[in-house]
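REVIEWER CHECKLIST
Item 1: Sequence provided? yes
Item 2: Single chain? yes
Item 3: Sequence as submitted:
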Amino acid sequence: MRTQTQVEETQQTSQIPHWNIGTRIGFRFCLVYLGLFVLYFSPASLQYLLFVKHESPFVLGGVWPMRQIVFWAGAHVFRIGSPPDPGVGFDGSFFWIEAFVLLIISLLATGMVRFDFAALMFAYGMFKLIPSQMPYPNLFELVRPFGHFWQVQVLWSRSRK
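Item 4: Structure as written out by the authors:
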């Protein structure tokens, strides 16, 4: 039997701190937003770090479909009559609208992350539940000499017993 102090120590170590819902949503949003921001602007950073002379005024915002999304947001959300100006450096209206569009994409993605992971885990469970990933070997594989198998075939066809 355990003593009272051992039971209390076990109970104290087994309590895992949980994040409240606001912290979890904030973490997901920050992860998605900063991830998109880094992926989106990393070509410009690489241009500056590698001293490449080719300068793109719009970085990845100049490619389809992001350019059209930024122009649409500038015209319909911010009511800018002319196309957004790239300005000097990253301080033009184009890049501010681009940051807003990334913010909206991040908000939408934050809501979808949980459902995407749930769907992914459900599909993974179904693939493991239904034995279609590693089927039982057929008669041809059972009578084939061992030396005629590839290494991967040995692993996949001999994994089920």
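Item 5: Key structural point noted by reviewer: DSSP finds six helices and no strands in the chain.
Item 6: Recommendation: ____
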